[in-house]
Amino acid sequence: MPVTIAPPVLVDLQAQVGVITLNRPEKFNCISRGLADGLCAGIRSLEANPACRVVLLKANGKHFCTGA
User: Fold this and answer.
1) Main-chain phi, psi angles of 42, to 5 degrees
2) For residue 20, is it within any domain?
């Protein structure tokens, strides 16, 4: 059975609202190199999209972010 690895950051655009979701709930969304890189890439992507008017930052799981 193949193992599926979820990306550490999810980025979506819903009706002019950019949504960036920290997606490492098993690690309490602790900042890692991959999460930091994904967060920066997500911000750049939404910043470059003229349809995006505001950005919402949220997290999957019980904890928002436990730091590094």
Assistant:
1) -65, -40
2) yes
Please tell me the total number of residues recorded for the chain in this structure.
68
In a domain, 1, yes or no: no
Q: What is the mean pLDDT of residues 4-26?
A: 95
Tally of domains within the chain: 1
Residue 4 belongs to a domain: no
Give tens-digit pLDDT for 25-49.
999 999 999 999 999 999 999 999 9
State which H helix or E strand residue 38 sits in. helix 33-48
Q: How many CB atoms lie within 10 A of CB 53?
A: 12
* Domain region containing 41: 9-59
Write the CA distances from 33 to 8, 16, 30, 48, 51, integer angstroms: 10, 28, 10, 23, 28
- The model's pTM is 0.90
